[in-house]
């Protein structure tokens, strides 16, 4: 018959073997969880990487491009220069309007193309300081408008056509008051209105109101 000490020694060896097996199983399980967490999410039908933000960096670690989608519905691609500053944007805002934008190194707008309501595109150009000096747009009612602004961004010359295609030119002073108007009506009647600084008004034909 085995002694009590011999039986205890055998029991201890079995316990150590069981602990070793348990440790290996736990380690393998943890490794599997870690790999699953690090692995990109692939749809069941495969081929597409799912992420809310993707950043591309150059060899020096500088950000050169970011592709992101926000919870508010906005999403876009931003391109950065060699200093990591955003210079170009192609995106869609939360209203669904697509936009293409170019900026200076300081972030001021130089050119921007936006489409509103699926049918109203607008192109704007800005100076280095960000002041908009030119814009051309098509309105949702079918009318069109071109604006030239002064150094403070105030529209000074407005060329447009109404929803019937009737053209008109409006010249505005620094206070925003119309000083000259030339237009052709939908019935092809032409008119000219000039207003002097003293309030005197010249109209042609003289019968127009």
Total strand count, please? 14
**Main sheet: strand order:** 1-2-3-4-5-6-7-8-9-10-11-12-13-14
Roughly how much helix do the residues carry, as a percent range?
A: 10-25%
Q: What is the averaged pLDDT score?
A: 83
* Helix/strand class: alpha+beta
Number of helices: 1
Rg to the nearest angstrom?
A: 35 Å
The amount of beta strand, in percent, is 35-45%
The arrangement of helices and strands along the chain is HEEEEEEEEEEEEEE
What sort of overall outline do the alpha carbons produce when their principal axes are compared?
elongated
Distance between the termini: 128 Å
The residue ranges in which pLDDT falls below 50 over 5 or more consecutive positions are 24-28, 33-39
Largest sheet: 14 strands, antiparallel
Keywords: Membrane, Transmembrane, Transmembrane helix
Transmembrane segments: 21-42
Please explain how this structure is put together.
The chain is an alpha+beta fold. It has a domain at 1-39. It contains one helix and 14 strands. It has one helix spanning 4-38, and strands spanning 53-57, 63-69, 75-80, 86-92, 98-103, 109-116, 120-126, 132-138, 144-149, 155-161, 167-172, 178-184, 190-195, 201-204. Strands 1-2-3-4-5-6-7-8-9-10-11-12-13-14 form a 14-stranded antiparallel β-sheet, with no helix packed on it. A hairpin with a 5-residue loop joins strand 8 and strand 9 (144-149). The protein is elongated, with a radius of gyration of 35 Å. The model is unreliable at 24-28 and 33-39 (pLDDT under 50).
């Amino acid at each position: 018959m085995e002694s009590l000490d011999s039986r205890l020694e055998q029991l201890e060896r079995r316990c150590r073997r069981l602990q070793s097996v348990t440790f290996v199983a736990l380690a393998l399980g943890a490794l599997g969880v870690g790999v699953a967490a690090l692995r990109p999410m692939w749809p069941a039908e495969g081929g597409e990487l799912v992420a809310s933000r993707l950043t591309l960096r150059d060899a020096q670690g500088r950000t050169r491009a970011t592709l992101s989608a926000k919870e508010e519905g906005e999403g876009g691609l931003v391109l950065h220069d060699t200093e990591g500053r955003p210079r170009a944007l192609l995106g869609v805002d939360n209203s669904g309007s697509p936009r293409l934008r170019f900026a200076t190194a300081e972030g001021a707008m130089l050119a921007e193309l936006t489409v509103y309501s699926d049918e109203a595109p607008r192109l704007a150009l800005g100076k280095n300081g960000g002041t908009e000096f030119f814009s051309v747009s098509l309105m949702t009612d079918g009318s069109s408008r071109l604006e030239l602004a002064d150094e403070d961004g105030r529209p000074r010359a407005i060329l447009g056509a109404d929803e019937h295609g009737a053209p008109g030119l409006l010249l505005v002073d620094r206070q925003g008051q119309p000083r000259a108007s030339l237009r052709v009506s939908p019935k092809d009647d032409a008119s000219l209105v000039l207003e002097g600084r003293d309030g005197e008004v010249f109209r042609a034909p003289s019968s127009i109101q």
